[in-house]
Amino acid sequence: MGSSGRRDGRLSPAAIAGWAGLAMLLGGALLAALGGLNQSLYGASAFVERYLDAIANDDIVSAEATPGVRLDPADLAGAGLPEETSTAMLRSGVLKSGPEDVRVLADEPTGDEGARTVTVSYRLESSIVESTFEVKPIEPLYGVLNRWEFATSPLTVVQVTAAHNPLFTVGSLTLDTRVNKTGDELLAFTQQAPYLAIAPAVYEFGYESTLLEAIPSELVTTPGTPAEVTVDALPTEEFIERVQAKVDEFLIDQCASQPVLKPAGCPFGVDVDDRVVTEPAWTIVESPPVTLVPGETLFEMPPTPGVARVTFEAQSLFDGSYYLFEQDEGFTLALDARVRPDGSIAIQLK
User: Fold this and answer.
1) Pairing between strand 156-163 and 227-232?
2) HEC secondary structure over 158-205
3) Is residue 254 within 8 Å of 317, Cβ to Cβ?
4) Which of 278, 345, 340, 348 is nearest to 310 (CA)?
5) 75: Cβ contacts below 8 Å, ≥ 6 apart
6) How far apart are CA 65 and CA 307, in angstroms?
7) Category of 114 on φ-ψ map: left (φ > 0), alpha (ψ -120 to 50) or beta
8) Cα distance between residue 73 and residue 227, in whole Å
9) Are 271 and 297 in contact (CB under 8 A)?
10) pLDDT digit string (tens) for 311-341?
C-alpha cells in the first residue's frame, strides 16, 4: 500500500499543517471581524451615536439606561445638588426635539486606560451644535466586544423658576415646584426647583390655565452644563375681567347703594356745607379699569382713578333756597389679588 495511507487513523503531517493553516485563517478572520465590530458597532463613536439617537427618537428610557448617564443621590450630593432633585422630566413626551443629523468629527484616545474623546456635531432645531463626550471602557461583552460608559454623565440640571404660580408645563407634562416643600415655602409667590434633564435636547416651558398664562419659552440643554429657565405666569384676560366684575360689584352694590354723603368703607364721599334735604344718590360714572402686575407676594392693582357722581336736593343755609346738588367726585382704588388653591380669586382692597 502507498505511503499516503493512514491505517493507524492518524493525520499525516501535511494534513495537520493544512488544518492548522485553515484554523489560523479562520482565527485571523474572526479576530479581524471582532476588530471591525469593535471599531464600528461596538466602538466609542457608535456608543455616543446610539445615545443621541435614543434622544432623537424620544426613547428616554434607553437614553437614561445608557451606562454612565444615570445619577444617584451620591452623585447629586457630590455636585452640590439636593439629593431629592426631581427626575420627573426624564420621560418620553417631554422633549420638544432632540439631536438630528449627527456626525462624528473626532474619536481620539484619552489617557492610558482606554478612554476616548468623541466629538460630534448635530442639529438642534435650526442650530448646528458641537459637543465632546469622554467615554471609558467597561467589562467587554462576552469578553471580546467593547462596551463603554460616559466618564461624566451628560445629564444636566435645570433650575426652574415658577414666577407667580407654582405650576408649569414642559412638553406634555405639568409639574408643581412645591413638591418636597413644607411650611412657609409652600406659600411663596415665586417658587424654584431643580430638575434632572436629558441633554442635548430642546425643551419648551410654559403654562396656560383660565386665570394664568406664561408665554412659552424654549431651553436648549447642553451635556453636563446646568441651565436655568423662568416660567413667568401672568393674569389672563379672564382673570382681569373677573376682578373687574368684583370691583364694579363692590362700587355699585356696596358703595353707591348707600344713601349717605360718605359711604362706609368706600373710596369716595363728599362734604356739603348746606342742609341735605333728600337722600344722596350715588352713581358710578367711571369705574377704575383693572390692571394687575406682579408684586412680591401677589398680584397688585396700583391706585387707579375712577369717578362717582352724587345727586340730592339741598337747602342753602345762606338764603334758605332749595337747589339740586350734583357733583362728580374723583377717587382712586387699589387692590391685591391672588388665585386660591381651589381656583377662585381672593381680592383685598387697599
Assistant:
1) parallel
2) EEEEEECCCEEEECCEEEECCCCCCHHHHHCCEEEEEEEECCCEEEEE
3) no
4) 278
5) 153
6) 66
7) left
8) 19
9) no
10) 999 999 999 999 999 999 999 999 999 999 8
> Would you call 139 helix, strand, or coil by DSSP?
strand
Rg (CA), the chain: 38
Q: How far apart are CA 275 and CA 314, in angstroms?
A: 6
Cell numbers given for 310: 352724587
User: Which amino acid is residue 301, in one-letter code?
Assistant: M
163: β partners: 190, 232
Helix (H) or strand (E) holding 267: none
Rounded to whole angstroms, how far apart are CA atoms 7 and 331? 126
Sign of CA dihedral 51, 53, 56, 58: negative
What are the boundaries of each domain within the chain? 16-150, 158-220+228-235, 237-349
Assign 13 to helix, strand or coil.
helix
Strand, coil or helix: 210: coil
Q: Which residue in this structure is represented by grid cell 460630534? A: 120
What are the cell numbers at 138?
A: 467597561
Class of domain 16-150: alpha beta
The torsion region of residue 142 among left (phi > 0), alpha (psi -120 to 50) and beta comes to left
Residue with cell 337747602: 315
- What is the phi-psi region of residue 132: left when phi exceeds 0, alpha when psi lies from -120 to 50, beta otherwise? beta
The CA-atom distances, in angstroms, between 173 and each of 170, 176, 201, 303, 315 are 5, 10, 16, 38, 69
Encode pLDDT of 32-90 as tens digits.
444 454 454 679 999 999 999 999 999 999 999 999 999 888 888 887 777 889 999 99
Contacts of 73 (CB under 8 A, 6+ apart): 83
Would the CA dihedral through 312, 313, 319, 321 be positive or negative? positive
